[in-house]
Amino acid sequence: MTRTSVTLCADVSRAAGEDPIGTAPHWAEVTVLELDVPVWAQLRSVDTWTPAQSAVFAALREKVEASGAGFGLLMSAPQTPGAPLRVRHYVRGPGGYRRQDYATDLPQTEWARGLHDTLIEPARLRDWQPVAAPERGADLHVCTHGTVDAACGRYGVPVHAALRSAGERAWRTGHFGGHRFAATAVELPSGLLWAHLTPTLAVQVARREVSPAEVAGHLRGFAGLPARAQVLDRALLVQHGWDWLNAEREAHLDGDTVTLTVTAAGQTQTYRAAVTDAEPLVLPGSSHKPDRAPVRQYRLGPVHTGSVTAPDTQVL
């Protein structure tokens, strides 16, 4: 039998020199469902959803349309396979996201209940058992979903293994977008998304053993901000160092002009810059589809600092 060679989209992205900044999704909150790997396929199989499961996603679409705020859904393999459904819920707050864990006796097939009660009707969480979250450290959700894209299996699995071996809280996680950035990871509670991680680099990032300047080219962005604001936020992270992540950052957009209002240690500072489109790259979105499409790249203009009154635009 002849084995067909697959060109991995992540390899093409790296070879093209793609800058991943601005590709992090914009999330107001994130729900992480602890599900065994076989259940991931069930959740992704729209055609097999029950009416109740379909109703949950319809309600989520209405919520997004009404508020303009997106939400994250991650599927992570539990530490104990076959364990009852458990949910980790992150809500946007100062310095990233606040985490709260919930346990239940429900089977994992009741995953729609976890989504509904965290993202649509949080008052029902009183029926769940709150579990104390770890006080320190990060959760690295590494996409290892090789059945969705071979790049995530090829590069994500060894990154997850390296993080676990190093004693970091790493989670084997289902597809959350960005195949071509494998190995890609969502870091919470910081809300950072990473691209093209290697096993060694992933551990260094988790432990902050490298400076932001050294890993800027691997940062997809901060999920608490919209795409153009992620570009300015990265530049300020490089300038100020990892302590920047402790600050409360809010963005105002006026066309291509981004204004970040930043509060830390009781002090508020404003940063403003133009973030315009650079020449796009033409890349495949998947390792299994040869079609290529333009991929947006950004250019950051001069950054102006001061007590600038933010434009009367939507806070994002």
TrEMBL record:
Q: Name one Pfam family in it.
A: Suc_Fer-like
Protein name, UniProt field: Sucrase ferredoxin
